[in-house]
Design a protein that fits this description.
The chain has about 375 residues and is of the alpha/beta class. It is built from 10 helices and 17 strands. The strands form 2 sheets. Strands 3, 4, 5, 10, 11, 12, 13, 14 and 15 form a 9-stranded mixed sheet that branches. α7 packs antiparallel against α8.
Length: about 375
């Protein structure tokens, strides 16, 4: 029976970044993923305010560079100049992460449905168990299972039933500026919001997302209705019926990610910023923090060092996430009112582009120290 330094449940955004970093520390790491292919996604692109150099990624992962973000309400338009803004190719991001695994230390097993973990009489978690009762032993167990929260829900670090924000998208012909992202708000979006992310070769992603359970039930129908709006018809032409989509959890801001030798990273503990939604750079940062704490705990044979991950996360993110949660709640409240959304964009015109982008990116005044 093999015992790994670290067993990671989930080979998505958090799991692959964490494994890459643990490989740098020469930690024997096992990734268990329920999918047969780690590059099988429900959606393939995302907008991000990411600094590629911070995470060892190349320009190859960029589907389109962006220099402007355009906000639309019913009657108001606001253009914000932007840098370090990209539409990312999700497949290429994950290909680069996986391609940088140290194969001497990282093992990947797919088609594995983990559904519980075991612990000893001292509360120490000993192994993950799949549906076939196979055991996967590790000194540290990591839940990176995304919105499923396979283990975080079981141990009480996250509620078992949470609301989800869900979005659907089409890849369409694009008629607009290839370096402009469009964010769409107002009553016509029925309490949700829309987006257009340009790609290369005159293509774009148009999407619609909502926090409303009733709206979510008919998202594709509502996205089709949005495509008939005059503004949208000037920007895109739908030429296929292939729909993609995904969800993120809507929870209170969580700050407890460690229990004994169990560590949770990513959507399993709702680490997507409440404003941003895509959250890749936030989850990547959390995974890097977790890798350092895990390595220190293993190096010293002392699991108490895992708490340094929580402490570093709180220092970096907690205040921002609380402010972002407040902004999210205001968006829920006002997004179905054209007058209020118009007024919000009027007020936005009084703020500097730099300040707007920091808020949109979920940083709320955070300045990166170089």
């Amino acid at each position: 029976m093999d015992t790994f330094d670290v067993v990671i449940i989930g080979g998505g955004t958090a799991g692959t970044m964490l494994a890459r970093e643990l490989g740098k520390f020469k930690r024997k790491t096992l990734i268990l993923d329920r999918k047969d292919n780690l590059l099988d996604f429900t959606f393939n692109t995302l907008g991000s305010f990411i600094d590629l150099n911070d995470f060892g990624l190349t320009k190859n992962v960029v589907a389109q560079e962006i220099d402007s973000v355009v906000f639309h309400s019913k009657n108001i338009k606001k253009v914000v100049k932007s840098d370090n803004t990209f539409v990312l190719d999700k497949t290429k991001v994950h290909e680069e992460l996986i391609g940088n695994f140290d194969d001497d230390y990282i093992t990947v097993m797919t088609g594995i449905h983990v559904n519980c973990i075991l612990k000893d009489k001292n509360g120490h978690y000993t192994c993950a168990i799949d549906k076939s009762k196979n055991e996967y032993h590790g000194k540290v167990i990591v839940d990176a299972s995304g919105t499923n929260g396979v283990i975080s829900k079981e141990v009480g670090l996250r509620e078992k039933k949470v609301k989800l924000a869900t979005g659907v998208e089409y890849n369409v012909k694009y008629l607009g500026n290839p370096r402009e992202v469009h964010l769409l708000m107002g009553k016509v979006y029925q309490g949700g919001y829309g987006w257009i992310f340009p790609l290369q070769k005159n293509r774009a992603i148009i999407g619609f997302g909502s926090f409303n359970d009733q709206v979510v039930k008919k998202l594709k129908l509502r996205l089709n209705e949005i495509l008939e709006l005059p503004l949208i018809k000037k920007l895109v032409i739908k030429d296929n019926d292939k729909v993609e989509g995904g969800s993120i959890p809507l929870t209170p801001v969580l700050d407890k990610f460690v229990l004994h030798n169990l560590v949770c990273v990513g959507d399993s503990v709702s680490q997507v910023n409440p404003v941003v939604g895509e959250g890749y750079k936030f989850i990547f940062e959390a995974a890097i923090m977790a890798s350092k704490a895990i390595n220190k705990a293993l190096e010293n044979d002392n699991m108490s060092y895992l708490s340094e991950y929580e402490s570093e996360w709180k220092n970096r993110f907690l205040a921002n996430y609380k402010r972002s949660k407040s902004s999210q709640e205001k968006l829920f409240k006002y997004s179905n009112n054209d007058y209020l959304m118009d007024m919000a964009l009027v007020l936005l015109k009084l703020r500097s582009d730099k300040r707007i982008l920091r808020s949109l990116s979920g940083e709320h005044g955070y300045e990166k120290v170089i």
